[in-house]
Amino acid sequence: MMRIYRASLLASAIAFAPATGHAQASETPSDPAVVPGPAATPVLGKRVYVVGDFARYAPKTAYDLLQQVPGFTIRSASQDRGLGQASENVLINGQRVANKSGGAIDQLQNVSVNSVERIEIVDASALGIAGLSGQVANVVLSSAAKPSGNFEYAPSFRAHYTKPALLAGSVSYSGKSGPVDYTLSAKYNPGRGGFGGPVLIYDGNGVLTETRDEAYFSQFEQPVFQAKFGLDGPGTSIGNLTLGYGPYWGPGRQLDRRVSVSGETSARDIRTTNTGYVFDANADYEFAFGPGRLKVIGVRHFDHEPLVNTRVDTFDSGAPAQGVRFDRNTRIGESIGRGEYSWKTGKNDWQVSIERAFNSLDQKGRLFLLDSSGEFVETDYPQGTGKVTEVRYEAIGTLSRPLTSNLDLQVAGGAEVSTLDRVDDDQAARKFFRPKGSLTLGWRPANGWDASLKIRRHVGQISFYDFLSQPKLSQDKESAGNPDLVPPQSWRLDTEVGRDLGPWGKTRLNLHYYRVEDIVDVIPIGVGGEGVGNLPRADRLGFESISTIQFDPIGWTGGKVDLSFGAERTSVRDPLTGEKRSISGVRDRWMSFEVRHDIPRTQIAWNAFVNHNHYGRYYYPTEISQNLDLPWIAGFGVEHKNIRGLAVRLSVDNVLNGRHLVDRIVYEGYRNQTPVSYRQKQDQLVGPIFNLNIRGSF
């Protein structure tokens, strides 16, 4: 199924020409476009930015500021089960936002730029916050901020196959009443996917046997309502409560018309409906206790995911239609209780954390077959129903301290104990003990240079859906449930080096190596079946370079380039052939290039970008396939930063006709034992994507 794409680079404008008097004026510091690009002020090992450093971009929210920090890449919090140590590289007022409702990044999208005092970029090892590594952004907000609101309207339109997303947008309002601050927000998150064109089917000898004309579209709608409350006091105590609710619905359809070389014609219609809701409650309270501070955190997440997939094949010959329907009613729950106690002794920052997490998936699956009268009749399908639970306890101790004036150390160690159970079968629950921990070094060898090194023992997680059978109607096969699935574990080495180029910008280089045990992949199950399981070992080695180059020093006032590129090489031993190959479906190379120009003496900016993402093949026991959805995408746009106080942008994405590409080789049985049954190739149209974005404050 196609990944729903929403362009991340919406550039735009509606009004273009400035007043004649402005066009003739000389460049002055009052012109935001000629204010020098963001250049940090070094303060005690930090790079410090104030709001004025970003004036040329006319930011509306704190998140707008963060997006323009040179050479900084925002890293969202891990969505693994449980909370664990910090992973999001954004803090608010020096504090981790410990929730599962979008974290600090989501909150900053609702914070007016007038509420921001400064942004500090600092090495994680100097903060004493367990789990962080590399560069971290600390957004410091003013305690005297006035009540304010933000809104955004961001519809998008595709030229082919999909309906327009007309209701995309958000509105939020923040204020304070005594010791309580609050933010109320509503956001509408639509998604669209669509492509169409020929599908070519070849036999094992490469002879064309069938052509198909296919059209696919998917639609996702989700309004999200959220209320956040913060409590300041009594004393030095602070607390937070975040409540969120989001109903969603997502119809999708895949149609094709098939013509075989023998002249036989048929059609396939696959429909998907997914209508459910998500509820989140997150609370934390921190207070002085003994020589340190105690923070208690509670999280509750619930997701109701009813899904209906229907496939019907009809034949022009008059033969009876064939069809299958899979109904899946799933309830997913997560409850987390966590305590963190932190204290300081001399130069040492200590933390001890204890966490309990309970996760569950309760699925009721039903399978129906189309009979000769055109009615769907239920057939026995017990493998599609079941309940999976996990209870996990984690305890970790962390020490952070400076070793020298320019070298910081963080050491963490602990373990997790978990019980994983398929409740409705006759197998005993499985229990696991897994040590985990990390060692992090942060080094500032000279002015403008920073480096970090992190070695950690990481415990991965698995999808509970893989314990139960899941039919794949579009591919005419099934993923068998696997009750023996275990989470992967890995040794991970990450290193990062950064260079501050002053008025020229910032550049960073990241390197990583992971040695993974019990890697999750698709393996043979039973007699001729396949499903998600574990392979003994895999290796991952990669790099990424991230740079922001500003051209004010050479006279191109307001111009800058953001460039990132990377690659990853992976290796795992194939369970069928015994030969080494890449891990299934891994992104193995990528690139992003964007040029932006904020034109002096105007309120106008333009941008152009090109992105590339390449994914390796998927290796199933019965097929090898590769799916590249818009591997290359380019676009451009213009923006007017002040139309009656509004920032308005127009952009067009996929202007170079990026395609939806599929290359699928299907075998008659296991691919190491049987010949090729057929090969499927797709090179299909996606078309241009038009975006409008209007942002303002009140």
TrEMBL record:
Keyword check for Iron: no
Membrane-spanning segments: none
Presence of keyword Signal: yes
Domain TonB-dependent receptor plug: 55-126
Subcellular localization, as worded in the UniProt entry: Cell outer membrane
InterPro entries linked: Beta-barrel_TonB_sf (IPR036942), Plug_dom (IPR012910), Plug_dom_sf (IPR037066)
Gene Ontology annotations for the cellular component aspect, listed alphabetically: cell outer membrane
Domain of life: Bacteria
One Pfam short name: Plug
Keywords, ordered alphabetically: Cell outer membrane, Membrane, Receptor, Signal
Range of residues in the leader sequence: 1-25
SUPFAM superfamilies recorded: Porins
Protein name: TonB-dependent receptor plug domain-containing protein
Species lineage: Bacteria, Pseudomonadati, Pseudomonadota, Alphaproteobacteria, Sphingomonadales
